[in-house]
Amino acid sequence: MVLSENKGFHTENIDKIEIGKEFIKINKLNYFGFYNISENKKYIVSWLDCSEDRHKCGRRNGGKGTYILCEDESVILKGKIERPNEGKVGNNGNFIFEDWLFNKDGINETGSICYGFNKNGRTILKHYLNSNIRESAISDDGNFAIFQTGYNESSLDGNKLYFFDLKENNLLWDISIKNMWPEGYIIKEHERIIYLDHGNGYKYKFDFDGNFLDEKIWDREKLDITTEYKLYILLLEELNKLDKSNASLDHYDDLLPYFNKLLRTNVSNNIKSFIYKEIAIIDYKKKNLESSLANLKLSLNYYSSLTTRRLYNKIKEEHKNSILNTNFAKQ
Asked: Which SUPFAM superfamilies does this chain map to (predicted)?
């Protein structure tokens, strides 16, 4: 039997599809790959980011990866794109991929393609992004898809959500999502809602027009639900907001439990140094010079920077003068 790229075919002679925890295997086709199953259990999409001989996988200069689509446990489609990853399939057989693309001239550049296909193998979405895709999802009934890019300060495409209508091959909107970075997305067509799933029951809603419906809830909960790195990024964001708005010291105090929470994790010495420096600056604003100096010492122990050293010497001099002035006033 000849399997044609991006064309449907009958599969009477293909033996049973073996479905494991992470991979499916089809002995007759000498195939195995990752997979995703549609909500109605009718379709399976599978992919392998390797050349056909499997000698080259992951980052590479050539050798397209393979994908297949199964309907009711029969393979109906086989195709190739450069580097298929994170496939998703809807209840109508439409499916999507993140194409992480080949290296160009041996260099791993940022850039990726949002792909969508229907069950007949027709390309219904192909959208290039000058940034790496970090997450994607297809709606339950397979008519909409969302792609999220990672942070990329050199590209306007970075750190955004892209929402597509697969029926019309149309980008409905793209918006910046700052530092939300959920674990996954759930798109419910009948509700016209996109859920940003952060795990442990924390979900936040966008509507199909790109409006963030739970923004106030997110602002209230975001520091409590994030991972170490995301918490660090969010704290940077919050500090920047407070500095720009000339906020009261009480607002800075609200961040201290989160700084201490981060210090109890396995963050790098550079981040610990930064945290102690920020705590020292808060102490300094509160005129608590002795505590500020103690935290600056801790900061320098983790990472000795010139700016922190200068700040330490400046506050040390102020502290010495304040002690002298206090003693003079007592005389």
From this structure: NHL repeat
Q: Which amino acid is at 17?
A: I
CB neighbours of 255 closer than 8 A, spacing ≥ 6? 235, 238, 239, 242, 282
Query: What pLDDT sits at residue 328?
Result: 44
**Helix, strand counts (H, E) of the chain:** 7, 18
Domains of the chain with bracketed CATH: 7-217 (2.120.10), 228-330 (1.25.40)
Residue-wise DSSP of 142-193: SSEEEEEE---TT-TTSSEEEEEETTTTEEEEEEE-TT---SEEEEETTTTE
d(CA 196, CA 277): 33
Dihedral pair phi/psi, residue 317, rounded to 5°? -65, -40
pLDDT of residue 154: 80
Q: What is the mean pLDDT of residues 139-168?
A: 93
Across the beta sheet with 95-99, what order do the strands follow? 84-89, 95-99, 112-117, 123-129
Predicted structure pTM score: 0.75
The band of 141, judged by pLDDT with boundaries at 50, 70 and 90, is: very high
Nearest to 200 by CA among 234, 224, 167: 224
Compute how many other C-beta atoms are within 10 angstroms of the C-beta atom of residue 29: 17
User: Would you call 41 exposed, middle or buried from its count of C-beta atoms within 10 A (0-12, 13-18, 19+)?
Assistant: exposed
pLDDT in tens, 89-113: 999 999 999 999 998 765 557 799 9
Q: What DSSP letter does each residue of 192-257 carry, written as one string? A: TEEEEE-STT-EEEEETTS-BTTHHHHHHHHHHH--HHHHHHHHHHHHHHHHHTT--HHHHHTTHH
Number of neighbouring beta carbons within 10 Å of residue 180: 18
